[in-house]
Amino acid sequence: MAETSITINDVVFVVDCGKAKETSYDALNNTPCLLPSWISKAAARQVYCPSVLSKVKGSLKAPSPCITWGVRRQKGTCPSERRGRAGRVQSGECYHLYPRCVYDAFSDYQLPELLRTPLQSLCLQIKSLQLGSISEFLSRALQAPEPLSVQNAVEYLKIIGALDENENLTLLGRNLSVLPVEPKLGKMLILGAIFNCLDPIMTVVAGLSARDPFMMPFRQERKSAKAQFAARNYSDHLALVRAFEGWKDAERRQSSYEYCWRNFLSAQTLRAIDSLRKQFFFLLQDTGLVDHNPENCNRLSHDEHLIRAVICAGLFPGICSVVNKEKSVALKTMEDGQVLLYSVKVNSVFLRDSTGVSDSVLLLFGGNISRGGLDGHLKMLGGYLEFFMKPALADTYISLRRELEELIQNKLLDPKHDIQLHSDKLLSTVRLLVSEDQCDGRFVYGRRLPAPSKKATKEMPPGNTLESKKLAEKDAAGEALLWLRGENHSTSRDIDHMSHRQWLSPAPPPPRRSPTWTTSARKTSGRLTSPLRVPSPMQSALASVHVAWTRMIATASGDVIITNDGATILNKMELPSSPPLRCLSSSPSHRTPLLETVPPPSSSSPEPSSASVKYYSPMASTLPLSPTHSTRPHSRPSTFLTAMAIPIELTDRDSLVKSASTSLNSKVVSQYSTLLAPLAVDSVLSVVDPAKPEIVDLRDIKIVKKLGGTVDDTELVKGLVFDKKVSHASGGLTRVENAKIAVIQFQISPPKTDIEQSIVVSDYAQMDRILKEERQYILGMIKKIKATGCNVLLIQKSILRDAVTDLSLHYLAKAKILVVKDVERDDIEFITKTLNCLPIANIDHFRVEKMGYADLVEEASVGDGKIVKITGIKDMGRTTTVLVRGSNQLVLDEAERSLHDALCVVRCLVSKRFLIAGGGAPEIELSRQLGAWAKVLHGMEGYCVRSFAEALEVIPYTLAENAGLNPIAIVTELRNKHAQGEINAGINVRKGQITNILEENVVQPLLVSTSAITLATECVRMILKIDDIVTVR
User: Fold this and answer.
1) What is the Cα–Cα distance from 948 to 629, expressed in whole angstroms?
2) Which of 53, 113, 169, 291 is deepest in the core (most CB within 10 A)?
3) Where along the chain do the CATH 1.10.560.10 domains lie?
């Protein structure tokens, strides 16, 4: 019962006979094992009690003289004391009975963990600490491990690329040494981050680190439930990814319990996997391989073939080969010989958590490749795996493999290196190859996978007609490979269409050439025309709420987003070519001065950080090809726009509210603009520093989302709000007045070493002493905290060990200290700035002067959950908190985005206190002014300015088109109005005509248009300056 964690309420008497499961390591087979074994005498002494040999409660008499027994009766009423044994749910008794002959056969002490576990992680730590040779260092241990175990660990690290031939750490090894997981799982995480498919890989690694989430109450039903997640892709790992994503979707719909019950899944294990994923992401952030935006490292998370390749790279050399027979297939591994795919016999060796991979995946992402005796013969794992193909194809695989390894090394050397930007052709070719050469179910006789719904494509010259689609796909893959190498496409016919695994007639290999990725002269037009395709999916967003369409975005992870927010739509777009990516890279630059300012509806763009860049970039792309002629028109637009602007004052609150309200009219939650607009104005004005009123940091405004209620329940809180509840352990406090608050970054838990080790306890007295010292250690920390008068404790989340334990919470509750635990590290700066306090990193630095003070700290019920509010803060910093409510997750997310846009509008007006008309008025007026200026210029400069002016008309044209008006007639009339001196004339989409747009209160901040035009022009000038695209190593 204890080993299987089964709890039966009526079982209160438990007999322990001295058997336990112990982790061991088989050095001969290089395999860790979990085997039942006898405990040691040292462990037995903890429960051995001769004083009760004769009788226990009158029911147990002394045994016969030939056998003596050690008996100790244990009672327990606390679940944490007798978990899994007697007393878990009620009082019980536990008896430990050992025959004397069995006890005499016990070993004196448990085998040290160093001798019964794999040594790969320890070897990495030894090399990272620069302790010299691994074997020499371990030989100096009190009980040195077997030389064969050390040799196996070193060889394994060499195979996966963590150590070089001289046992020195590689770049991969240095990154693996800081990850607290097995090296193979750490490598999988690193490659998932490098190839931008991190989210599913984190799920796989977390699933392999935790227990199997698929439970087995009914074996056949459980197999059927798991099979539906596999989706005939022959991958346990992808089945785990789909099961976890389905659970996350169900959790958002608040139906996770029904989902787990229906699919035989363990909710506790899935929550553990979710927690591990978050820890992995923070660890990878520390390495620099990922940034704070998860979208950047998940751009290819939808590519299951690439995910399969990364799994292969991580689990290698755990490879099982497929031996095809006449009527069946056999599976064989290098160590165990023939194995089974599933557990069908009790004593059989079977595979678990396996994924089928193709030859191309193994050649590109597996171990080192060596050449065989014949041309086109490749070997892996010392000849255990052999591949036979055309010599040209073999050379191509080796060349691609070398380029992939260089790409990974460059990324590890410089984590900021964007592989999709610099190695787009290589990645496209590799993805094409691994998706074309699929694992087609060869290891299950008579079954085949359906053709995938989508394939990566590469335009190639038309070839000869082939008799089947499969041959055409192989032909296309061959042409793509040879195109990468710079060879003639016609030679791709040399690739055999029948199989990659067959003997071919010897032929001399082609001359070896390095891939040349330089562009030809005709690529220049592609750089100019490709940005024109960027705004196409977003043109319908350029309008007011009456005509703007809402987009439903389906992400790679299966999430659905309903929005017409330009930045959100743009961030979800996948643009493979470099010039559009350059346009996208301008969006963050545009956000920096504006902090995502959003102009009002019927204006020149739905969002400057997205739409303005996307529309102005194609405008500016009509400039002449020489970048030197695009400099002078770059500086004039700001002057023209400023001349037509209207100044405002911060004391004019009505104008600020009107501007913010207008920006919300095109949003999904526009009906709540009367609530959100004043809230946005009050939030920004509350964080404005009178000494520097033009500088406003929106990071000082914390937006907290809480599901439940409606958007009408959104409120501005002058203080702090935590989307969590306080600790209720041992009757902890939920309300504190006159609070003295401390923010700590240390752990209130027993200390643990950085390197795993085991402690041998010889008798029960020493065990009691250890427990007593742990209690004294924790109690001493809490006494120091209580001595300062602190009564509210905010504890930062820790991934190294428990930030706080049940015992700590018990003592804190007794000390009348309210505890809020698991505070995110990113929130510490905002919290300390709000409370006007300092974070405390060590218990020795706990001082009264580092604390903050507030009138009230309380836990409040909001919807179906709890929040913690801190109000009445003394000497509060210039920050504020907004609690956003919504009836479902889609509305809640859109309300947050809309509120953020309104905050950006007000912030923009604070930075530059001018308003200009919307409705296409600034663009058409700017076009008219530049056109007049172009007439006085000559030659190329005049043509450049005139082209720039004509391109600006795309904004009013698109606005009229989306409003259902005649764009040619409307833009012509608008141009005539401005020629007559009506500079505020714009498109009124409600009336369908040209009116004075200022009278309709359709305005936008001046900073929006000036920044959009400036940055968009800089973007295109940068593209024009690119003469060639060269990939460097």
Assistant:
1) 11
2) 169
3) 525-623+914-1025
2-33 tens-digit pLDDT: 445 566 777 777 787 888 777 776 655 556 66
Determine the Cα–Cα distance for residues 536 and 551; give it in Å rounded to an integer: 13
Contacts (Cβ under 8 Å, ≥6 apart) of 993: none
Closest Cα partner for 530 from 951, 1020, 950, 949? 1020
SS3 16: strand
Mean of pLDDT values over 245-261: 87
Alpha carbons 22 and 39: distance in angstroms, whole number: 9
The pair of three-digit structure tokens given for residue 768, joined into one six-digit string:
């009691």
Contact partners, residue 819, CB within 8 Å, separation at least 6: 726, 727, 732, 793, 795, 804, 809, 812, 813
Tokens 């990566």 locate to 456
First to last CA, the chain: 58
Two tokens, residue 555: 């992400």
Comparing CA positions, the residue from 1009, 1008, 997 lying closest to residue 918 is 997
Backbone angles phi, psi at 701, to 5 degrees: -115, 110
**What span, in angstroms and rounded, lies between the C-alpha atoms of 38 and 40?**
7
- The DSSP symbol for 384 reads T
Asked if 629 and 623 touch (Cβ cutoff 8 Å), the reply is yes
Cα torsion at 710, 714, 720, 723 (round to 10°)?
A: 20
Contact 392, 479 (CB under 8 A): no
Helix (H, G, I), strand (E, B) or coil at 624: coil
653-718+884-911 — its CATH code?
3.30.260.10
Determine which helix (DSSP H) or strand (DSSP E) holds 280, and give its type and residue range: helix 267-287
Mean pLDDT of 508-536: 40
The one-character DSSP state at 608 is I
Residue 510 CA to residue 390 CA, distance in Å, equals: 11
Q: At what angle do helices 304-315 and 198-209 cross, to 10 degrees?
A: 40
3-state secondary structure 927-955: HHHHHHHHHCCCHHHHHHHHHHHHHCCHH
List, by residue range, all CATH 3.30.260.10 domains of the chain: 653-718+884-911
Q: What are the pLDDT digits (tens) for 55-113? A: 333 333 333 333 333 333 343 333 233 334 555 667 777 777 888 888 888 887 777 77
Q: Which of 377, 374, 375 is nearest to 509 (CA)?
A: 375
Collapsing DSSP states into helix, strand and coil, what is residue 273? helix
Write down the H helix ranges in 644-789: 653-664, 673-687, 764-787
Check: CATH 3.50.7.10 for 720-754+762-875?
yes
Per-residue DSSP letter, 243? H
Helix (H, G, I), strand (E, B) or coil at 804: strand
pTM score, two decimals? Answer: 0.48
Q: What is d(CA 903, CA 896) in angstroms, rounded to the nearest whole number?
A: 10
pLDDT the model gives residue 56:
35
226, two tokens: 């798991």
Among 197, 416, 196, 127, which residue's Cα sits nearest to residue 287?
A: 416
For residues 988-1022, b (16+ Cβ closer than 10 Å) or e, as one string? bbbeeebbbbbebebbbbbbbbbbbbbbbbbbbbe
Three-state DSSP class for residue 374: coil
CATH number of 525-623+914-1025: 1.10.560.10
Give the Cα separation of 168 and 301 in Å (integer): 33
